[in-house]
Amino acid sequence: MDKKSKKLLLKIQKNEMTEYHIYLKLSKIIKDEKNKNILQKIAEAEKAHGNYWQNITKVKVKPNIFKVYLRLFLAKIFGITFVLKLMEKREGTGSKLYEDISVEFSEAKNISKEEAEHEKELISMLDEEKLKYVGSIVLGLNDALVELTGALAGFTLALGQTKTISLAGLITGISAAFSMAASDYLSSKAEGDPKATKSAFYTGTAYIITVILLILPFLFIKEKFLCLGITLLIVILIILFFNYYLSVAKDLDFKHRFFEMAFISLGVATFSFFIGWFLKVVLNVDV
After folding, report:
1. Last residue of one domain, picked from the residues 95, 129, 163
2. 171 and 101, same structural domain?
3. Are 23 and 120 part of one and the same domain?
4. DSSP structure class, residue 29
5. Which of 130, 253, 258, 261 gives the lowest tally of CB atoms within 10 Å of its CB?
6. Checking phi first, is residue 160 left (phi over 0); if not, alpha (psi -120 to 50) or beta?
7. Do 137 and 272 have their domain in common?
8. Are 30 and 117 members of one domain?
9. CB 150 within 8 A of CB 269
10. pTM for the complete prediction?
């Protein structure tokens, strides 16, 4: 075995041992026994592959500790499924390494195929609460983005000071959040959902968080048009982040959803901006 081949094998070996530690640590932070067992099975598969390559290289490698704890942190914030899907989507790098080494070690292809199929099968079995309520989160997020972005754009033209705009925005946003949560609860209850309260909680929480983020510029900056510009940037960033999350966690098309949400939110904001200007001129009101 030449130096180049050994270097590739050590890289593969390090990846396997790193993923072994990631899956093992993930299995320790979840309470659900089903998911815990799934992750432990994946971990054992990764460890077995790592040991196989260690028998060939005769070198014991350490895992990438930074990557292990980064994945653990992301799992605590965004959920186990998000991290597992993220790792699955980045399997291309590992597959390329296996492909490069398979010329010399034919077993590499079998391990790569077995690993990919095994992980996909196990990941598809995961059942995480956060993903069950994505629909409720989307409902709260979308409604807040469209409604409040439009309202703030209209208030910016119709009203004078940023404090007044932020006050009007907070009243509008918080009232709408409770209204949306109540509507979601009644709708879920009518459909016989035993967890209607939790669904409403996710909807209302997503709405209120969005409201706070969009109004923040108006609370700290005095130039209202600058505030509106920053708010629109925040809207784009929220849409970008959330759709990336969905594209990873639920295998949804990122580009289509991103441009659709951005077009609707910014379109409503533009329309509301001119409505605010029109009403201000027609009614001759200067607040």
Report:
1. 129
2. no
3. yes
4. S
5. 253
6. alpha
7. yes
8. yes
9. yes
10. 0.70
